Amino acid sequence: MDVIKIIHVKDEDKGRFVVFVNDIEAGYIKYEWMENGNFNANGTLVYDEFKGKNIGKQLYNALMNFAREENVEIYPTCPFVVKTMLRDKAVYDLLDDDFKKENDL
């Protein structure tokens, strides 16, 4: 059975969640803080050898949990995050107001 660990790496104006499978880096999801106090989810990468193992979804869930904990909204520009958030009505409240207006939500 695989051991999966996700760590949160924070810098002053950006951060990322990095996932490890059996102590081997498998991918990440990253964000940058915006001037309005929300953040832009701007990239997700799962390395080829780990695709098909639901790694991206686990990273996405970590990002959603972080947004809820910090009480901030997300302006997604990463295609994976955009697609996944738009399919998940339970997280519409986490979408940045500008994103909602621009996408008629």
UniProtKB/TrEMBL annotation:
* Native source organism of the sequence: Chryseobacterium oryctis
Q: Which CDD domains match?
A: NAT_SF (cd04301)
Q: Which residues form the N-acetyltransferase domain?
A: 9-96
Under the heading PROSITE patterns, the entry gives: GNAT_YJDJ
Q: What is this protein called?
A: N-acetyltransferase
Matches recorded under InterPro entries: Acyl_CoA_acyltransferase, Gcn5-rel_NAT, GNAT_YJDJ
Write down the Pfam families for this protein, in alphabetical order.
Answer: Acetyltransf_CG
